[in-house]
């Protein structure tokens, strides 16, 4: 629904997901400022071309205003939507440092909503220096979309959950969340209020810690992976065993934090079925595979490394015995990450 009081929104990270998010907010009436880096000159010349599955058409999109660095931006903003890769540099240039140290971007009354539509588990810990100055929101997205040289292809419905990270208990936090949900809803997307962010993020890892990682390791998209479904029984020999290990660690963590929600066997079954139904026929290349093919660092720690850390922290005793697939995959992808670093 269009917001009668247009919100000022800063969007950082305009990949496939980020462009869809910025476009959705802007056509619903928000005043959108975007940080565009690799596609800046292309967008300046001709904008983005979006092949929208939800709208059933191809559209041209240009943000209300856009810059190629955050230092050029003037705030403050009602919301900052972050869809960047979570790969810490620890040199002061990470997005959480740039926002936390800025006197321009956040509202003085501490009601700016920072919306993290990003992969992984434990990502909120990087924002500890900002949490006293803003409201931290989680976005768990199930869209499948890619951005190649400012051409965005959407393969799956924009299905997304927004919720409050644990610890966001200020009286105004729920209002900030509810307003953003209203700003993002359209007739064609599916937007849900997330009552248990940690549980939702674990369920998403059934995909990212499995398909994202396997596709990256072997340099094959989801469709090519499923071509081996019969000859190698890839689902039963690799995909489901990995999912079951993610489920095991997820429920160990959720029980540790006394959650009433657990990742179920049906969740595992549904994730495999939906991936086979939607991503495989489109030969979808997950984000880690795209990063590999473009010689960019992969989101190894927040997608896979943090799962193993949480396993250790919540009572895990033997990685080799209880999570052997995850442990081996992490070691293998650490070697891939090292190989990528040698190309820089």
Automatic annotation (TrEMBL):
Residues 196-334 form the Ketopantoate reductase C-terminal domain. Residues 10-166 form the Ketopantoate reductase N-terminal domain. GO terms for cellular component: cytoplasm. This is 2-dehydropantoate 2-reductase. It comes from Diutina rugosa. The lineage of its organism: Eukaryota, Fungi, Dikarya, Ascomycota, Saccharomycotina.
């Amino acid at each position: 629904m269009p917001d009668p009081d247009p919100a000022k929104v800063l969007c950082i990270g305009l990949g496939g997901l980020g462009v869809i998010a910025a476009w959705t907010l802007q056509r619903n009436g928000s005043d959108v400022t975007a940080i565009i880096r690799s596609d800046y000159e292309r967008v300046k010349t001709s904008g983005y071309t979006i092949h929208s599955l939800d709208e059933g058409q191809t559209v041209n999109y240009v943000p209300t205003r856009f810059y190629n660095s955050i230092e050029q931006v003037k705030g403050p903003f009602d919301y900052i939507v972050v869809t960047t890769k979570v790969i810490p540099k620890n040199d002061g240039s990470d997005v959480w440092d740039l926002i936390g140290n800025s006197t321009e971007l956040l509202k003085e009354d501490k009601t700016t909503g920072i919306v993290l539509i990003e992969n992984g588990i434990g990502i909120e810990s990087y924002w500890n220096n900002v949490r006293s100055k803003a409201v931290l929101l989680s976005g768990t997205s199930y869209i499948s979309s890619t951005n190649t040289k400012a051409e965005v292809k959407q393969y799956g419905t924009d299905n997304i959950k927004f919720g409050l990270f644990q610890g966001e208990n200020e009286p105004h936090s729920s209002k900030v969340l509810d307003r953003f949900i209203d700003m993002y809803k359209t007739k064609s997307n599916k937007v849900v209020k997330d009552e248990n962010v940690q549980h939702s993020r674990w369920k998403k890892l059934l995909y990212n810690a499995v398909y994202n990682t396997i596709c990256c390791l072997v340099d094959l998209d989801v469709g090519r992976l499923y071509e081996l479904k019969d000859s190698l029984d890839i689902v039963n020999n690799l995909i489901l065993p990995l999912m079951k290990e993610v489920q095991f660690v997820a429920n160990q963590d959720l029980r540790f934090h006394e959650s009433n929600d657990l990742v179920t066997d049906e969740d595992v079954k549904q994730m495999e079925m939906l991936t086979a139904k939607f991503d495989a026929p489109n030969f979808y290349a997950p984000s880690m595979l795209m990063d590999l093919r473009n010689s960019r660092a992969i989101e190894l720690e927040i997608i896979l490394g943090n799962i193993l850390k949480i396993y250790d922290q919540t009572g895990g005793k033997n990685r080799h015995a209880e999570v052997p697939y995850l442990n081996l995959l992490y070691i293998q992808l650490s070697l891939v990450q090292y190989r990528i670093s040698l190309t820089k």
